[in-house]
């Protein structure tokens, strides 16, 4: 990380210095930076090739461990889904039972209201019949 930070700082200084340079100096700086970049890329490619063989075995091991990890996660997800499905089913049953009880209460209130309305109608009819005699 420190080397990367140093490289970034060095590049920033070169850019700031290039702004103050004349065209010929700037062109030379660009050419030098391009050559440095090509050398760095070549070195990086060489390093990658050298490490590739070593990493291949490690990568296979990591791949196997990753597959085991993925299967473990999938299993836990499926278990959690089943648990959530059970919880949802329980909540749905509780909601249905609550709705049924509310509906029974509503029906009882409607019956009481119907009884009141019927008795009130009978009373009104009795009063009407009495007054018409």
Keyword list:
133 residues; single chain; mainly alpha
Provide structural commentary.
97% of the residues lie in helices and 0% in strands. By secondary structure, the chain is mainly alpha-helical. It starts with a helix and ends with a helix. The chain has helices at residues 2-20, 23-132.
Structural class: mainly alpha
Q: Largest beta sheet, briefly?
A: none
Strand content: under 5%
The backbone outline, from C-alpha atoms, is elongated
Oligomeric assembly: single chain
Helix % is: over 70%
The overall strand count is 0
Distance between the first and last residues' Cα? 110 Å
- How much is the average pLDDT? 82
Low-confidence stretches: none
The secondary-structure element order is: HH
Short description:
It contains 2 helices and no strands.
SSE order and pairing:
Layout: H1 2-20, H2 23-132
